[in-house]
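Good morning C.,

I know you're traveling, so I'll keep this short. The sequence:
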Amino acid sequence: MKAVVMVQSERESDAKVERETRFYITSSTDKADKLGAVVRRHWFVESMHWLMDCLFGDDECRVRTEHAPANFTTIKHIAHNLLRRHPAKHSMTTKRLTAAWDEDFLVSLIS
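The tokens, ready to paste straight into the viewer:
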């Protein structure tokens, strides 16, 4: 352990302001601006992992042999990108379920 990093964040939604202070332990001796970028990058990756786990159940997936894990990951990322770019104002989960139930919606995702 070389340092303790303190990150203060502020989030505004509607008329409400939420402030939060988080602490991290690090072995890095980099300056604050570089560590801030590292923390932001980390949480970007974590938020993507969280989305893929909630949307596609990544943590429950038991595909483990040969090229199957990489193939499944590629297919899930393609599906995620198709769902994300669709203009419907629904949650990703709703879009995924609608695509499973409604062939016309599925076609609109792919075309």
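Safe travels,
E.
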